[in-house]
Write a structure and sequence with these properties.
single chain; 5 helices; 23% strand; two-stranded antiparallel ribbon; alpha+beta; 161 residues; 5 strands; three-stranded mixed beta sheet; transmembrane helix; elongated
Length: 161
Amino acid sequence: MIKKILPFVPVALIFLFLITVLILFNLEKGRNSHVLFFPLDGMNGKNAEIRNIYRSSDPKHRIDLFISELILGPVELELNSFMPEGTKIKASIWSGNSLYLDFNKDFILDTPRIPLSYTEKIDYLQRNIKFNFPHIKEIVVTVEGQIPGSEFYYDSEKIDS
């Protein structure tokens, strides 16, 4: 009886190994659900929507994907985006509990659709990141490498006009 089963043991072990590898590979891939907060129409209050975002094995890439989803704006019509069209992440650095984000100058543009100040946009961004990534304690946001409103901030739009 054992002699009949013995030739199938290596095949069964290889089959079991392949199934285990496939399961572990599929656990790494897929999507995670994240909660994204956006201002309500008229900017009176905020609401949330759940978005499934690709799950990457690299934590920094996960944060970049999440911020890209915030830039795209809400799916629900009664919500407004808090980042103007054309906003792009120029750089992001994640070090320990700190996240440093640099956006292009479109981030601070005033548009009729988004009547939020720069600080309100930062507040929405920070609330979203801290809610979905609680291990991040500090978020530093710059525009074109500078902190708007700081003493040495150089606004090229004002100088060009």
